[in-house]
């Protein structure tokens, strides 16, 4: 795809320019290793290195233009240099311009919050497919254009991938798209230049403090998503989260709320909550849904409110919504032939773990044991480790602490930090088994008929990441194969 540099710079605030911006560009990128002939290379400061160090390498590989925050000492004749105050922000606008602003051609709804984003966007995508629309999805689990699956590497793709995917959706005739907006994405300007029709806030609790450093910064990152909305958009927030109204303090968008506990624009009342689904009063009706757990009542309310704000008819929405299942790896059940219930859930934050375990506790019918297998990812927020172990102990009869994705950390270091959260009185119910497969096997050996095994943290993931290598691993398959072997 070809474009003139000057057209790509629309809405970018420029500090200085060296060279002629009428130059033709046939590719945009922020990684020098991906530069081709006539590329525009945008030098971005990262967490590991600084793209400015690769400007010459990019020109050697054929870059025709450079966007940067600091002009290099030596400028070369074969490239045009554009200086901006914030390259990541410029990248957002450039990517949107390059792909012809695809987001403005869609009814695009973004979902932010610590937990519930994937669940919410997946339900919205399925719902709008059922309602007859061509619909796109961008999520942690996968991206989709209608039923075509495109693998996803991030919760929110980088600005170039994002605009490309949205453009592909437009080309496929999509009218609607639903995407997760992570706090990393807001801070790194992955969504700068994107026109949102609506924005949802699910909740905010402890996570990602490795990246944001303080909880206030984390709140600010999520709030910025709402601060940047235009007046034509709608904001829809969870009123029962104490930061719900904070999100909308400075937004120009129309303000809408959903709630189970007070009077929101979209008010739900939980009637029943079982291992097979939940019943809620919503939109003036009593409806059974196939999703499990109190927290999913919030996700369903957010989805319902969004559909109504997008102009859909209440009765039809509720009918379709009542038939939908949860996203993969979210409270996914694997039942053994002798009646042990294995639950695989992506709870990887203290709040999510507490929600899932308290849901499991509330669904217990007799004296069945709850056995929890859980770990924490390496190279991620370390402060959540003791908290998650403490919560696992509080709500389980047996706890097996194990590895999640160790990444570049020593699994035993992570487990030591988790053990810090185990109270002396709880030590006897805890075992530490670093090998995740062995840990799940142990849980299955300990379980009797009717017991519940929660395997938390990895949900839909089909790999375990150890020192940069992704080894095939799927909690659901591991449980399934142990259950099969055990009963033969
Ligand atoms: C912490 C983080 O967000 N990192 C993202 C970030 O990388 P970075 O800042 O570390 O980049 P860097 O390696 O320092 O490089 C700086 C710049 O130099 C460039 N470079 C580098 C080397 C070279 O030879 N040439 C070159 O041009 C790089 O392309 C980059 O532009 O920018 C990269 C390109 O977009 C991302 O792939 C990378 O995501 C990493 C893989 C990651 O793990 N991100 C996670 C934490 C993440 O984003 N998670 C969120 C939320 C998860 C959730 O809660 O659901 C998500 O949205 O997925
Ligand atoms: N509304 C909610 N409130 C609290 N916990 C929730 C909610 N919805 C889901 N959860 C819990 O959080 C886990 C992750 O849910 P989901 O994948 O929908 O969240 P996410 O925000 O997309 O997470 P990520 O940041 O990793 O992309 C679920 O497996 C469940 O345990
Ligand atoms: N999107 C989150 C998911 C964490 C999932 C957990 N399995 C882990 O690897 O820590 C992250 O990248 O921080
Ligand atoms: Mg997600």
From TrEMBL:
<feature type="short sequence motif" description="Meso-diaminopimelate recognition motif">
    <location>
        <begin position="404"/>
        <end position="407"/>
    </location>
</feature>
<dbReference type="InterPro" id="IPR004101">
    <property type="entry name" value="Mur_ligase_C"/>
</dbReference>
<dbReference type="Pfam" id="PF01225">
    <property type="entry name" value="Mur_ligase"/>
</dbReference>
<dbReference type="GO" id="GO:0008360">
    <property type="term" value="P:regulation of cell shape"/>
</dbReference>
<dbReference type="GO" id="GO:0051301">
    <property type="term" value="P:cell division"/>
</dbReference>
<dbReference type="GO" id="GO:0005737">
    <property type="term" value="C:cytoplasm"/>
</dbReference>
<comment type="pathway">
    <text>Cell wall biogenesis; peptidoglycan biosynthesis.</text>
</comment>
<keyword id="KW-0067">ATP-binding</keyword>
<dbReference type="GO" id="GO:0009252">
    <property type="term" value="P:peptidoglycan biosynthetic process"/>
</dbReference>
<feature type="binding site">
    <location>
        <begin position="113"/>
        <end position="119"/>
    </location>
    <ligand>
        <name>ATP</name>
    </ligand>
</feature>
<feature type="modified residue" description="N6-carboxylysine">
    <location>
        <position position="222"/>
    </location>
</feature>
<dbReference type="InterPro" id="IPR036615">
    <property type="entry name" value="Mur_ligase_C_dom_sf"/>
</dbReference>
<dbReference type="Pfam" id="PF08245">
    <property type="entry name" value="Mur_ligase_M"/>
</dbReference>
<feature type="domain" description="Mur ligase N-terminal catalytic">
    <location>
        <begin position="25"/>
        <end position="99"/>
    </location>
</feature>
<keyword id="KW-0436">Ligase</keyword>
<keyword id="KW-0573">Peptidoglycan synthesis</keyword>
<dbReference type="GO" id="GO:0000287">
    <property type="term" value="F:magnesium ion binding"/>
</dbReference>
<feature type="binding site">
    <location>
        <position position="380"/>
    </location>
    <ligand>
        <name>meso-2,6-diaminopimelate</name>
    </ligand>
</feature>
<keyword id="KW-0131">Cell cycle</keyword>
<dbReference type="Pfam" id="PF02875">
    <property type="entry name" value="Mur_ligase_C"/>
</dbReference>
<feature type="binding site">
    <location>
        <position position="190"/>
    </location>
    <ligand>
        <name>UDP-N-acetyl-alpha-D-muramoyl-L-alanyl-D-glutamate</name>
    </ligand>
</feature>
<feature type="binding site">
    <location>
        <position position="182"/>
    </location>
    <ligand>
        <name>UDP-N-acetyl-alpha-D-muramoyl-L-alanyl-D-glutamate</name>
    </ligand>
</feature>
<protein>
    <recommendedName>
        <fullName>UDP-N-acetylmuramoyl-L-alanyl-D-glutamate--2,6-diaminopimelate ligase</fullName>
        <ecNumber>6.3.2.13</ecNumber>
    </recommendedName>
</protein>
<dbReference type="InterPro" id="IPR035911">
    <property type="entry name" value="MurE/MurF_N"/>
</dbReference>
<feature type="binding site">
    <location>
        <position position="32"/>
    </location>
    <ligand>
        <name>UDP-N-acetyl-alpha-D-muramoyl-L-alanyl-D-glutamate</name>
    </ligand>
</feature>
<dbReference type="GO" id="GO:0005524">
    <property type="term" value="F:ATP binding"/>
</dbReference>
<feature type="domain" description="Mur ligase C-terminal">
    <location>
        <begin position="329"/>
        <end position="459"/>
    </location>
</feature>
<keyword id="KW-0460">Magnesium</keyword>
<dbReference type="InterPro" id="IPR036565">
    <property type="entry name" value="Mur-like_cat_sf"/>
</dbReference>
<feature type="domain" description="Mur ligase central">
    <location>
        <begin position="111"/>
        <end position="305"/>
    </location>
</feature>
<feature type="binding site">
    <location>
        <position position="461"/>
    </location>
    <ligand>
        <name>meso-2,6-diaminopimelate</name>
    </ligand>
</feature>
<dbReference type="InterPro" id="IPR000713">
    <property type="entry name" value="Mur_ligase_N"/>
</dbReference>
<dbReference type="InterPro" id="IPR005761">
    <property type="entry name" value="UDP-N-AcMur-Glu-dNH2Pim_ligase"/>
</dbReference>
<dbReference type="InterPro" id="IPR013221">
    <property type="entry name" value="Mur_ligase_cen"/>
</dbReference>
<keyword id="KW-0547">Nucleotide-binding</keyword>
<keyword id="KW-0132">Cell division</keyword>
<feature type="binding site">
    <location>
        <position position="457"/>
    </location>
    <ligand>
        <name>meso-2,6-diaminopimelate</name>
    </ligand>
</feature>
<dbReference type="GO" id="GO:0071555">
    <property type="term" value="P:cell wall organization"/>
</dbReference>
<comment type="function">
    <text>Catalyzes the addition of meso-diaminopimelic acid to the nucleotide precursor UDP-N-acetylmuramoyl-L-alanyl-D-glutamate (UMAG) in the biosynthesis of bacterial cell-wall peptidoglycan.</text>
</comment>
<keyword id="KW-0961">Cell wall biogenesis/degradation</keyword>
<keyword id="KW-0133">Cell shape</keyword>
<feature type="binding site">
    <location>
        <position position="188"/>
    </location>
    <ligand>
        <name>UDP-N-acetyl-alpha-D-muramoyl-L-alanyl-D-glutamate</name>
    </ligand>
</feature>
